[in-house]
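#help-structures

NK: newbie question. if I give both the sequence and a SMILES, will the prediction place the ligand too? trying with S-adenosylmethionine
OV: yes, paste both and it writes out the complex. here, I ran yours:
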Amino acid sequence: MRLRYIEGQYDYVKNHTKGIVEPQNYDDIKEKFGNNKPLHVELGCGKGRFIRGMAASNPDINFLGFEKSIKVAYRCLKCSSSAIDEEVKNYYIVYSNGDILSEVFPEKSIERIYLNFSDPWPKPSHYKRRLTHKGFLDIYRKVLVDSGEIHMKTDNNDLFEYSVEQLAQDNWELILVTRDLHNSEYVNGNIMTEYEEKFSEFGKKINKLVARKK
Ligand SMILES: C[S@@+](CC[C@H](N)C(=O)[O-])C[C@H]1O[C@@H](n2cnc3c(N)ncnc32)[C@H](O)[C@@H]1O
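OV: that's the protein plus ligand as structure tokens.
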């Protein structure tokens, strides 16, 4: 479904208690959390179900959900409930492209990066936009702590196999690879994203990998 741009979306996200727009420096983000807990980042958080669920179940971790579309970031914040926002202190939704990570975050400042149901960009000429393209892996390597991890889920088999290959070639340690997450031992504690729910209802198998920085 094509989302409509509604006048004032940018200001809505900017002024929302859980919104951050186009962050320029790390101190602003640290100040928001007001503590030094480990940081987990999701790139392409969509409507935010995963990041909110993770934040609620992991109060000792800080979470940031990056979303590059202002229309989606707006929808994400618009559909959050103020009761949850009040109670779950440890997350923010960031309107920004994930490619700015290494410009804003210092080296080794992020413990984990989540890539959930990332856009597949099926044309080879668009592969560099894939969030597991070498260009992005170089960014993740900079900002992740030693032994920091990338957690990826997708229904798209082509994107998944590409990602396994890219990560192996780029010397990441693949510590988990499953092509049927929901029927695997790794399903315990799995928090579903909006896309994950939709695709698994259609009977699609969900792929998951975890790659560790070496
Ligand atoms: C297919 S949706 C999946 C949303 C959600 N993760 C889920 O699983 O329900 C992918 C989202 O990632 C966002 N996105 C794609 N590339 C991005 C990037 N480089 N930085 C931040 N967000 C991105 C898109 O705007 C879109 O909302």
